Amino acid sequence: MATATRPDESRWQSWHGKFIVEERYVRPETRRNLYLTSSILIPLGILLFIVILTSVLQQTGPARLDRPVELWINSLRSPSTTAVMGVITTIFGPIFLPIIILVATVAWALLARHLWRPLLLAGAMITGVIVANTIAPIVHRHRPPTDLMLIGSDSTPSFPSGHVLGASDFLILLSFLLISRAPSAGRVVLAAIVSVLGIVAAMTSRMYLGYHWLTDTLASLSLSLVIIGIVIAIDTWRTVRVPGEPVTGPASQPQRDGT
């Protein structure tokens, strides 16, 4: 005897299938490579963070570069460069970046009529904020001297840099979530160039303006690798299927590579 489906359950399945499910068919090697990428990024990010944190606590290794890099960047200061760096740090700051993410998430969900990738991006960004705000008071590293800070003093802990973590997560994850559905060599190269330039700009602006050491920014980048690896693993597990596998939602419409 067939089991009757409750109306509320049917509505949920219909909504879930239309707005959440975003399964796509790819070649088996494509899914394997996605999992391989994730399995490399996560331990690599953890290892790099441990190395950087240890060097900061013991003032050895990479931490020895903090002062020389600070002196070199300070020697490049000029009014026009300061203005540019101020704009960059504002864009990736705690006020403007959340607004950008909110607008991008809402617009993406409305235009694509899908929630999976916008929610994944927003969730990863929130995770980055939580991670940074959890680690900073534990390590409690002092920032560079306040007389080096160009746009106001800041006495909050320096390690890691929230600006750089946010910039890295946003640029790389947005690129991945967009390009993974329609991959091409040109798009990958363009996204890589934009992401690298954006991350370097965020790192440089925080050091140039006198708010972070080099190792603060490197620690953020290593944490970002972990978050990105986790997102790739979750997205692959949830959306990637190979031919012959069943889809999980009655209204899902699997995509093919390149669509």
The secondary structure category is mainly alpha
Output the radius of gyration: 21 Å
Q: Please, how many domains? A: 1
Low-confidence stretches: 1-5, 249-259
Oligomer: single chain
Q: How many helices in DSSP terms?
A: 9
What distance lies between the first and last C-alpha atoms, to the nearest angstrom?
41 Å
The main sheet orders its strands as 2-1-3
N-to-C order of helices and strands: HEHHHHHHHHEE
Residue-averaged pLDDT: 85
Give a quick account of the main beta sheet: strands, pairing sense, barrel closure: 3 strands, parallel
* Strand percent estimate: under 5%
Work out the helicity level: 55-70%
Could you give the topology of this structure?
Elements: H1 7-19, E1 24-25, H2 28-58, H3 66-74, H4 79-91, H5 96-112, H6 116-139, H7 162-179, H8 185-208, H9 214-239, E2 240-241, E3 255-256
Parallel strand pairs: 1-2, 1-3
Protein name: Phosphatase PAP2 family protein
Pfam families: PAP2 (PF01569)
Keywords: Membrane, Transmembrane, Transmembrane helix
Care to describe what's here?
- The chain is mainly α.
- It has one domain.
- It is built from nine helices and three strands, in the order αβααααααααββ.
- It has helices at 7-19, 28-58, 66-74, 79-91, 96-112, 116-139, 162-179, 185-208, 214-239; strands at 24-25, 240-241, 255-256.
- It has a three-stranded parallel sheet with strand order 2-1-3.
- Helix 2 (28-58) runs antiparallel to helix 9 (214-239).
- The two termini are 41 Å apart.
- Mean pLDDT is 85; it is low at 1-5 and 249-259.
- Pfam families: PAP2.
- InterPro entries: PAP2/HPO, PAP2/HPO_sf.
- Keywords: Membrane, Transmembrane, Transmembrane helix.
